[in-house]
Amino acid sequence: MYFLGLGIILLLMKYLDIDPVMGWSWWIVLAPFALAVAWWTWADASGYTRRKAMEREDQRRLDRINKQRDAMGLKKKRR
Asked: What count of other Cβ atoms lies within 10 Å of the Cβ of residue 10?
């Protein structure tokens, strides 16, 4: 996501002729977009994206369980 944001900023700076980006080659300005595509391809192929989503789901589940235990007046489970 950082590569995409950087690419958009550089693209706007190049389009609006803001120094020092106006003197750079278009290849340099568009490189963050290629890096973003490479990152997303690697993240999906390696399972990184799915693993992070599963960690968020597990944390939400644990938070919900702990909230229900607190509402019932039980102590939290320690690990």
From this structure: 19
